[in-house]
Amino acid sequence: MSERPAFTPHSRIRDVLDVGPLARHALWRHGYETGEGFVDVLSQYQSLEHAYRGERLRDLTALLAELNSAQ
User: Fold this and answer.
1) Residue 63 to residue 40: CA distance in whole angstroms
2) What is the 3-state secondary structure (H, E, C) of 11-28?
3) CA-wise closest residue to 27 among 39, 37, 40, 15
4) Along the 71 residues of the chain, how does pLDDT read in single tens digits?
5) Nearest in space to 63 (alpha carbons), one of 30, 14, 32
6) Quick one: which of 42, 43, 48, 46 has its CA closest to 62?
7) What's the pLDDT score for residue 53?
8) Which end of the chain, C or N, has fewer beta carbons within 10 A?
9) CA distance readout (Å), 38 to 2, 34, 42, 66
10) What share of the chain is helix, strand, coil (3-state, %, to 5)?
11) Is-contact 48 11, C-beta < 8 A?
């Protein structure tokens, strides 16, 4: 069984979404709305830090802790 790498501020939104529905829900709880289908390609490939700086994501530190503790 392979362990996924730890998430960092430089991880992409797409990396989080690839983990599955629980990770998608964590993004939503921290303010990032992916919506149905999430077709905005540029947003998918932005880093978590970039989303945080653009105020699309709240409490980056807590999100990273949540995502990394689920490993």
Assistant:
1) 21
2) CEHHHHHHHCHHHHHHHH
3) 15
4) 446 669 999 999 989 988 888 988 999 999 988 766 555 556 778 899 999 999 989 999 999 999 999 76
5) 30
6) 48
7) 94
8) N
9) 27, 5, 10, 22
10) 50, 5, 45
11) yes
Is the sign of the CA dihedral 21, 15, 3, 27 positive or negative?
negative
From residue 20, how far is each of 23, 53, 54 by CA, in Å? 6, 24, 24
Token pair of 43 as six digits = 């947003």
| CB proximity list for 50: less than 8 A, separation 6 or greater | none
Token digits for 12?
A: 């992409």
CA–CA distance, 9 with 64 (Å, rounded to integer): 8
